Amino acid sequence: MQNKHLVLGITGGIAAYKAAELVRLLVKAGIDVQVVMTAAACQFITPVTMQALSGKPVFIDMWDSSIGNGMPHIELSRVADAILIAPASADFIAKLAQGRADDLLSTLCLARGSDQKACPLLVAPAMNKQMWENPATQRNIQQLKLDQILVLGPDAGEQACGEIGLGRMLEPETLLALVNAHFTPKLLAGKRILITAGATLEMIDPVRAVTNLSSGKMGYSLAKVAHDMGAEVTLISGETSLTAPIGIRNIEAKSAANMYTAVMEHIITQDIFIAVAAVADYSPATSSEQKIKKNAAALTLELQRNKDILAEVAILPNAPFCVGFAAETEHLIEYASQKRSAKKLPLIVANLISESMGKDNANITLIDDAGTHALPFADKTTLAHEILVHISNMLAN
Ligand code: CTP
C-alpha cells in the first residue's frame, strides 16, 4: 500500500472516535492519508487529533481557498487512489444515494465521477440499529451498491446507545484489511487455493499431546494475501491462536490424520496447494481414553508414521500446483532441495527454524527448477506477497 493516496472522510457519529485508530493504522501501513471531516464529525472528534495522526492539515470547509485554486473538491478527488468514508452516518449515506453536494466531503465524493476504477468509493456505515434497518436507509444502501460503491459492514453487536444489533462500524483493523485487499492487484483472480497452516496435535491421552512450535503465522498470512489477490481460499488449520482472516473458508483439523482427510476432501477442485502446516511425522500408536497415571518409573511411547499429505497430493492425477515448506536447523538449501525432489514439487520455501518459527518476520529462500531465490528479510505478510507473486509468475509461464 506504499505510495497510495487515500481520502478518509469522517462523518458525524460516535464511531468517529475509532477513525483516530484507523488513521494511525493506515499511516503505519504506508498509506498517505488525507482526512476530510464534516461539521458534524467535529462534534465527536477534533480535527487536531486527526491532523496529528495523519501528519497533514484536515479539510472541512468547502470554501477553503488554501488548496486547489479554491476548488478543494476537485483537487482532493483527483489525487486520491480511493475515498473511504468511515464512519458513514445514515444522513451521509442518504446524501451519497441522492448525489447531493452541500459540504466538502459530499462534493468531493460526487466530483470523483462515477468510475469506480478511477477513484473507488468505500463506505463503512455506522448508526443505531433502527436507523440501519429503516427502509429509507436500506433503499439508500441498495442505491450505493447499484452505483458500484463498496459498502463495508456494518457489524453487529452492542451499540453506544445500549441497544444490540446491526449498525456498528467495522473495527479499524478490519477496515485496514479491507482497504489493503482493495489495493492489492488481483493476480490470483479465479484461482482456488488450499493452504494448510499451524501445528498438528497428536493426542497421547485427553490432556497430553505431541505437537510442535509452529504458530500458523506464515500460513495465515498466505491465506489472507491470496484472498486479497482475488483467490478463493480454503484454509485447513491445525493448532494456532490466530483468528482466521475474513472472507476465507477455515476448516479446523487438529491431528495429522484429520488434516489428511480434510485436505483430500477438498483437493480435487484446487488449482494450488500450499502445505505450510508443520504436520507431525509421527503420532502415538494408541491414544488413551483416560488420563495416564504416573504409576510406572518410566513410560515408553510408541509412535507410528503419519501419511505425508503433501507427497500424496503431489502424485495425484491432475494434482494442483504444489508448494512445500522446509523448516530446517542446518544444511538449509541441501535438505530443502532434497525434499523438493523427493516430493516432486515445482516449488519449496526453505527457512531456518531459528529465523522463522513463531516469529513475525523471517528469512526465506524459494527453490524451484530455476535455482534458489533468497528473499530479503521481511514480515510474513510481505513474504506471503512475494511467494504468491512468484507462484503466479510460475503459473503464467
Ligand atoms: N508435510 C505434510 N504432511 C506431513 C509432513 C509434512 O504435508 N505428514 C508437508 C509440510 O506441510 C511441509 C513439508 O511437507 O510443506 C515438510 O516436509 P517434511 O519432509 O515432511 O518436513 P519435516 O516434517 O520437517 O521432515 P524432517 O523431520 O524429515 O525434516
CATH architecture of the largest domain: 3-Layer(aba) Sandwich
Q: Return the CATH class of the largest domain.
A: Alpha Beta
Q: What share of the residues lie within helices?
A: 25-40%
Radius of gyration: 25 Å
Strand content: 15-25%
Mean pLDDT over the full residue set: 94
| Record field, number of beta strands | 21
Distance between the termini: 27 Å
Structural class of the secondary structure composition?
A: alpha/beta
Low-confidence stretches: none
Can you give keywords for this protein?
397 residues, alpha/beta, Rossmann fold, 2 domains, five-stranded parallel sheet, 13 helices, elongated, binds cytidine-5'-triphosphate
Structural overview:
By secondary structure, the protein is α/β, with parallel strands linked by helices. It has an eight-stranded mixed β-sheet with strand order 12-11-8-13-16-17-19-20, sandwiched between helices. The chain has a five-stranded parallel β-sheet with strand order 2-1-3-4-5, with helices on both faces. The chain has a two-stranded antiparallel ribbon with strand order 6-7. It contains 13 helices and 21 strands. It has helices at 16-28, 47-54, 72-79, 90-98, 104-111, 129-133, 135-146, 172-183, 217-228, 256-266, 309-314, 332-342, 380-396; strands at residues 5-10, 32-37, 82-88, 121-125, 150-151, 155-158, 164-168, 192-197, 202-203, 209-210, 232-237, 249-252, 272-275, 282-284, 303-305, 321-328, 347-352, 361-362, 364-368, 371-374, 378-379. 33% of the residues lie in helices and 23% in strands. Helix 4 crosses helix 7 and helix 9 (217-228) packs across helix 13. The chain is elongated. It has two domains: 5-183, Rossmann fold (3-Layer(aba) Sandwich); 192-396, CoaB-like (Rossmann fold), CATH 3.40.50.10300. The two termini are 27 Å apart. Bound molecules: cytidine-5'-triphosphate. Residues 196, 256, 275-277, 279, 281, 306, 308-310, 324-327, 339 line the site of cytidine-5'-triphosphate (CTP).
